[in-house]
Design goal:
Strand order of the largest sheet: 3-2-1-4-5-7-6
CATH superfamily: Vaccinia Virus protein VP39
Radius of gyration: 17 Å
Largest sheet: 7 strands, mixed
Strand content: 15-25%
CATH topology: Rossmann fold
CATH architecture: 3-Layer(aba) Sandwich
Structural class: alpha/beta
Length: 242
């Protein structure tokens, strides 16, 4: 089971509602901080995530925890007929919709404010499902994965990009210092949210990454599950088929 780490320690709200509130608070600076704090490498990570699906040519894609739709934009390289993006943060969705309009992609990408653990789609609908930095924010990880399995068509693929823990001692030491000292300081100064970027590291530490996640992934029904670490293990790409 995934440890229940929440953004706001003194809040009586459940994790799901706290996460929605947190992303609403930082939405106006989310894209800037993503690129700045990752030194721009987050763009590369998303491209590598979408490459997993290149040989499958999915026509209907669901992007879960879509945020401001950056992974949905990366998925346009696959030339899909339609991408639905879902997220529980109304402010993130609003910014994503503005970005879609600027790119004139309203006919292809549609964002919906929705709970990823209770998807508003019928069974066996999507050719592929993508998630970037979203599953560790689920209140009930197993339930969220089972929902993905439900709406994915037989033979379809789920690809998940998520933070993981570096194994190299030198990289691990730098990563720990950067994540616990630098990120929270910059994140607080820029986003004006005291907790958001401390929660980032805490949620990564609590997440069952690597082999532990693959076992949970398999238990949700997925087959041929794989894990590919990137950038010295700072992130990993998980893939599984229905």
């Amino acid at each position: 089971m995934q440890e229940k780490v929440t953004p706001y320690k003194n809040s009586s709200l459940g994790k799901k509602h706290q996460v929605a509130a947190m992303f609403n608070n930082i939405a106006w600076r989310y894209d800037f901080l993503n690129h700045f704090l990752s030194f721009g490498i987050d763009t590369y990570w998303r491209k590598q995530t979408i490459r997993v699906l290149e040989s499958e040519h999915p026509k209907l894609i669901l992007d879960i925890a879509t945020g401001t739709a950056d992974l949905a934009f990366a998925a346009m390289k696959l030339h899909p007929e339609k991408i639905f993006g879902v997220d529980i943060s109304s402010d993130m969705i609003s910014i994503g919709r503005d970005k879609i309009k600027k790119r004139k992609l309203q006919q292809t990408i549609e964002l919906i404010e929705s709970d990823s653990e209770n998807l508003l789609f019928e069974d066996n609908k999507f050719d592929a499902i993508t998630v970037a930095f979203g599953v560790r924010n689920f209140e009930h990880l197993e339930k969220g994965l089972r929902e993905m399995y439900r709406v994915l068509r037989p033979g379809g693929t789920v690809v998940i990009l998520e933070f993981s823990k570096p194994k190299n001692k030198l990289v691990k030491t730098f990563y720990h210092f950067y994540s616990t000292k630098i990120c929270p300081m910059i994140g607080k100064a820029v986003s004006k949210d005291d907790a958001a970027y401390s929660y980032l590291y805490e949620s990564v530490e609590a997440f069952p990454e690597g082999g532990d996640f693959l076992r949970i992934f398999s238990d949700a029904g997925f087959k041929q599950v794989t894990c590919k670490p990137l950038t010295f293990g700072v992130v990993s790409i998980y893939a599984g088929k229905k």
